[in-house]
Write a structure and sequence with these properties.
The chain has about 475 residues and is an alpha/beta fold. It has 17 helices and 26 strands. Helix 10 runs antiparallel to helix 11. The protein is globular.
Length: about 475
């Protein structure tokens, strides 16, 4: 337990009433968990306002509250009022766990696409270099090689600092984490000390949350604005907004690029299903990863590793040994020679990049079948764009479900179909059942053809009307291949 006044020293605010020296065992922002020896932080969220539950928390024994609204509680309750409780939660969490981000080299990777791949490859690279490293990603969190289930791209501040403290206690010297726009905007990374930050790209996504692209860009930029002078920032010069990220940062400014002059300069020598041959700052390296988008990711991996003090040639040696990340351009082959590529591509830009990569591998009469959907309760503006991109770059498109959540999947498909012209509609089918949609693609494809199953990647579930059921694109595609090839 820790004295409340010691924790509040890290929080900018005003003491309204109550005892400041009570012992605190945990920080809670869910009123159901607030009890004796806890501090309840009243978060104002999009779904609920914690201030409505202060009486419930008090009845459960809680006597310490952080609020941004005026609340009325008995005099024995400590009330500490702040401007923003989300900011206060992050400050409290850092203090409660002893600022673990200052005890290791924390590297954040942000951008629309490529965050998971880059963070995971960095974790694998530094592990191969002999370091103990942590990973915080969409797919999985890791303390060295111990996997911990990931529920959010970036965890809440309390869970995040708890994980960082576990990493430090386990001897980790580095941690590589995805930094989502939601996490930046909701102050989940508040108070963390970053040694380095990387930017992949920024394209259309999450406008259901940010409302405008300008706001989305501003939120991403805020991550770099918050870096201190001891850190360095490495951004993608091939993205026109890469330079925008660096405008107000105090960190050392660096760039990487395939197409423009940069501190880390890359060139694609070969690109095939066998992998990439790249030239990075004049040195050639072969890697198992595929596609121009992965070439860009690898430049960021290389630049961040070297910026953290690793020897360039040793970094390149290990890059040549790295494998693809689960659900990112992962492919399986049927006994008859059909190739299926499973990829997390769930934004217009990501889908276009994956299809462009596939186009480079097409030979002669090879046809491309794309199975794609859009998630429910998410950005609706991208739905017609996703369908249009798939139709423009595929021989046959099958629109289907991708976690419809609370929405009617048929309406999602109609939203996607709105992006199709008359000609494009002729080679597009809509099949609500995702397994049946994949089955249709497998039945239509011939030896030598390529099937892209896009949108879910590493996910092993399908969420419909609030219920998650098992659904693994890789396993289902492999099973269908085996069944239909008999």
């Amino acid at each position: 337990m820790q004295p409340l006044n010691h924790l509040l020293a890290a929080v900018v605010g005003q003491h309204i009433q109550g005892e400041l020296t009570q012992a605190i065992a945990s920080i809670e922002f869910d009123s159901r968990k607030a009890a004796a020896n806890t501090i309840f932080v009243c978060i104002v969220g999009s779904q609920a306002n914690g201030h409505k539950y202060v009486q419930q928390a008090y009845a459960q024994g809680c006597r310490a509250f952080i609020t941004q609204e005026v609340v009325e509680l008995a005099p024995d309750a400590c009330v500490y009022q702040v401007k923003n409780t989300s900011v206060a939660l992050a400050q409290l969490a850092c203090a409660f766990y002893g600022h673990p981000s200052k005890e290791l080299k924390l590297v954040g990777v942000t951008g629309t696409n490529g965050k998971t791949t880059t963070a995971t490859l960095l974790h694998d690279l530094f592990t191969a270099l002999g370091y103990k490293a942590g990973l915080l990603s969409t797919v999985v969190n890791k303390i060295e090689q111990e996997a911990i289930v990931s529920t959010h791209t970036t965890p809440d501040p309390v869970s995040l600092n708890a994980l960082l403290r576990q990493m430090v206690n386990a001897g980790c010297t580095h941690c590589f984490m995805e930094v989502s726009s939601h996490a930046i905007d909701q102050h989940r990374i508040g108070g963390l000390h970053f040694a380095a930050a990387g930017f992949t790209n920024i394209t259309h996504d999450h406008l259901d949350y940010h409302h405008t692209f300008a706001e989305y860009l501003k939120v991403k930029k805020a991550f770099f604005d918050g870096l201190d002078a001891s850190a360095f920032a490495l951004v993608n010069a091939d993205d026109k907004n890469g330079a925008v990220m660096l405008q107000n940062t105090k960190a050392k400014k660096l760039m990487y690029a395939l197409r423009t002059p940069a501190d880390v300069k890359g060139k694609i020598i070969e690109n095939s299903l066998a992998g990439l041959v790249l030239q990075i700052n004049g040195q050639e390296v072969h890697t198992r990863l595929v596609g121009a988008f992965n070439a860009s990711n690898l430049l960021l991996v290389y630049g961040l590793a070297v910026g953290l003090g690793e020897a360039p040639m040793e970094v390149l040696r290990i890059i040549s040994q790295l494998s693809h990340v689960a659900g990112r351009f992962e492919y399986v082959k049927s006994p008859k020679g059909i190739t299926a590529i499973i990829d997390y591509a769930h934004t217009p830009d990501a889908l276009e990049n994956v299809l462009a990569t596939i186009a480079a591998f097409r030979k002669g009469s090879t046809k491309v079948f794309t199975v794609v959907g859009c998630g429910g309760d998410r950005d609706k503006e991208k739905r017609p764009k996703m369908a249009a991109i798939a139709a423009a770059k595929s021989n046959q498109v099958i629109l289907t479900s991708d976690n419809p959540r609370s929405e009617d999947p048929n309406q999602i498909l109609k939203d996607m179909e709105a992006g199709l012209g008359t000609e494009e509609a002729l080679h597009t089918l809509s099949i609500v059942d995702r397994q049946q949609a994949i089955k249709m693609a497998v039945m239509l494809a011939q030896p030598g053809d390529i099937i892209l199953v896009a949108g879910k990647g590493h996910e092993t579930y399908q969420e419909i009307k609030g219920v998650k059921t098992d659904f693994d694109d890789v396993a289902i595609t492999q099973t269908l291949f085996n069944q239909l090839d008999k």
